[in-house]
Write a structure and sequence with these properties.
Layout lengths: L5 H16 L17 H5 L3 H10 L1 H4 L14 H15 L10 H16 L6 H6 L7 H20 L2
Helix pairs in contact: 6-8
This protein binds heme C.
The site of heme C has 19 residues, from helix 4, helix 5 and helix 6.
Length: 157
């Protein structure tokens, strides 16, 4: 009789489950957004701020997506897709120009606040993307930029 150790059986089961869940893909929204609706086109931040947004925020709130390969393997892909859809519900850089000015002003304020408090980028994202961490000097630059943009919006009312 073939003897299968419990350990092997458990490993085999885990493997089967991991393979099986790959048949439940997520639909990360990969539709290209209209570039003229995008935050970068609309606000034209300088290179430093644009770099920060791309490096630290765009994967969830924007268009660019530089997720590592394992982010498309379930169950990691489910977590990623969940974060991305929730992120876009709150702030969608790709459709920035569709927000009315008072909403843009509120979101800019929230962006500075989240970054300042170290809430954004999300901690689990930083595990995978170490270079997405913003230094205190960068946070200052970032908030100076959101302040300037908010002042423009308030002035334009
Ligand atoms: C890994 C994905 C991810 C990244 C990267 C990320 N966010 Fe978020 N963001 C989320 C999710 C999910 C939410 C909604 C849940 C929450 O607030 O924790 C959110 C919410 C927000 C909100 C709304 C908070 C509110 O009051 O509703 C702001 C503002 C924000 N993010 C700004 C940023 C900025 C700025 C960056 C880059 C510095 C960034 N996020 C990077 C996933 C992300």
């Amino acid at each position: 009789m073939v003897r299968v150790s419990l350990r092997r059986l458990v490993l085999l089961m885990i493997l089967l489950v991991v393979v099986a869940i790959q048949f439940f893909p997520t639909s990360l929204d990969r539709a290209p957004a209209d570039p003229f609706q995008a935050l970068e086109a609309s606000l034209q931040p300088g290179p430093e701020v644009a770099g920060m947004l791309r490096r630290a925020c765009n994967d969830c709130h924007g268009i660019a997506r530089e997720w590592p390969w394992y982010a498309s393997v379930a169950p990691a892909s489910w977590l990623v897709a969940h974060d991305v859809s929730e992120a876009k519900e709150r702030v969608d850089f790709a459709h920035w120009a569709q927000y009315p000015p008072h909403t843009q002003a509120r979101l800019l304020e929230a962006m500075c606040e989240e970054v300042h408090q170290g809430e954004m980028p999300l901690k689990q994202y930083l595990w995978m993307h170490r270079n997405a961490r913003l230094s205190p000097a960068e946070v200052q630059l970032f908030c100076a930029w959101t302040d300037r943009e908010r002042a423009k919006l308030d002035g334009g009312r």
